[in-house]
C-alpha cells in the first residue's frame, strides 16, 4: 500500500523542529513518525493509496482500521482528518479529500513539540515491541551489530527496555536506564547518566546527564551538564556544562512561546526545544520552556530569552542577526566533518527559512 504524507495547518505549531525536515521525519520513540507508519502499514495489500497526516503516530490498532477500508474514505479524530484511502488523481493532488465519506476513528496526532517529548517513553516501548520479533534481546536489552560496550556500563531495565543500535559506543561506567534508544553510530561518553524516556538518534555524541529527551540525530552534548525533557534537532552542539531547567520553582505548568503567543503546555516538566544547526557556548543556562530557532548561537552569562529567533547571535545581554552567508558556511563545515555534503536543495531551504523568520528578528535591529 503506497503511503503519501501531507501537512495540515497544525504542522506550523511544531516550529522550529520541522523547518529543515518534514514533519513525518521527527523522532518519537525508537522510530520517526514516518518509520512507524511504514512499519505498521507495510503488510496491508490494497489497490488504494493511503494519505497520512504527517503528525500522526501510527499504531497497530490503526493498521486494522485502515486494512478494513474497502472503498475511498477519510478518517478523522476530533474533527481533524488524519488519513484517507484514495485512488487515481486524488493520491497526488489531495483534491476532494474533504468530500469523501468520513469515518471517526481513534488516533494520536502530535499537536505541539512537547507532545513528542512526553509521549517518548511509551513510544520507545511500543516501537521495541514491534521490532522485537526480528531481534535477539537479552534481559530486555538489545545490542546491535558492531557495538562497543566498555567495562562498568550499567543497563537498568526495571522501567523499560533498552535498544542499542548498530555501531553505537557506550563508554566506561555509563548508566543507561530504560526505556531508552541509542541510535546508530552514536557515542555515549564515559560516566554519562542517560535516564528513561530518552531517544538519541544516529551519529550523536552525548555525555553528562540526560532525562526524558530526544536527539533527532547528528548532534553533540559531549560534556557534563543537565538536559531534561527537551528536543534537540540535527547538527546542534551544546557546549561544556550547558544546563537547562525543566521544572519551575513553583511547580506550575510551563508556558512556551509558539508562533508569537505564550502557550500553556499543561505540563510541569518542559525543557528546551532547539532547531537545526544551533549552538550553545560553555556554561549556557536555559530556562524552562525555552525555544531556540534554526542556526542560532547562544552564549554568555545569565538566562537568554525564552524565545531565541532563528539566525540570532548572543544571549541575555543582547541578540543580533546572524549573517546568512556565515550561517551557511558554518553549516557546510559542520556537516562535512560528519562526511555529509550539503545539497543545493538543502541550502535553498536554509536560505528560505532565513527569509521566513525575518519578522521574528525585527526586534533585534
Instruction: Decide which structural class fits the backbone.
Output: alpha/beta
Q: What oligomerization state is this entry in? A: single chain
**What is the strand arrangement across the widest sheet?**
8-11-14-17-20-23-28-31-33
Count up the domains: 2
**Helical region count?**
7
Beta-strand percentage range: 25-35%
Largest sheet: 9 strands, parallel
Superfamily (CATH H level) name of the largest domain: Hexapeptide repeat proteins
Q: How does CATH name the architecture of the largest domain? A: 3 Solenoid
Indicate the CATH topology of the largest domain.
UDP N-Acetylglucosamine Acyltransferase, domain 1
Poorly predicted regions are none
Q: Can you tell me the CATH class of the largest domain? A: Mainly Beta
Q: Helicity, in percent?
A: 10-25%
Average pLDDT, rounded to a whole number, is 94
Terminal-residue CA separation: 51 Å
Bulk shape? globular
Radius of gyration: 21 Å
Short descriptors:
nine-stranded parallel beta sheet, five-stranded mixed beta sheet, UDP N-Acetylglucosamine Acyltransferase, domain 1, Spore Coat Polysaccharide Biosynthesis Protein SpsA, Chain A, alpha/beta, 2 domains, 28% strand, 7 helices, 35 strands, 18% helix, single chain, 365 residues
